[in-house]
Design a protein that fits this description.
- With 74 residues, the protein is an alpha+beta fold.
- It has one domain: Arc Repressor Mutant, subunit A, CATH 1.10.10.
- The protein is built from 4 helices and 3 strands.
- The chain has a 3-stranded antiparallel β-sheet with strand order 1-3-2.
- A hairpin with a 2-residue loop joins strand 2 and strand 3.
- The protein is globular and about 30 Å long.
- It starts with a helix and ends with a helix.
Length: 74
């Protein structure tokens, strides 16, 4: 059952660049190979990627995730 959810998340992430560029916290965490809890903690402390609040929901733009990841390169 876990693999099915992972496959579905992978498909949604792959479609992000073609369709909606916004990812949920769970999808963004998967995209960055982080735990969603870690991403939420980073958001709380202001150390994570830029995000947008749409009502009660938090979304990450895929370009912001890529930019944040690139800024972490050493």
């Amino acid at each position: 059952m876990g693999d099915k959810n992972l496959d579905e998340t992978n498909l949604r992430v792959m479609r992000a660049k073609k369709g909606s560029p916004f990812l949920s916290t769970k999808e963004a965490a998967h995209y960055l190979h982080l735990n969603p809890y870690t991403l939420g903690r980073m958001r709380k402390h202001g150390t994570g990627p830029r995000y947008r609040r749409h009502g009660r929901n938090i979304f990450y733009h895929i370009d912001d995730l890529d930019a944040w990841s690139a800024s972490r390169a050493r």
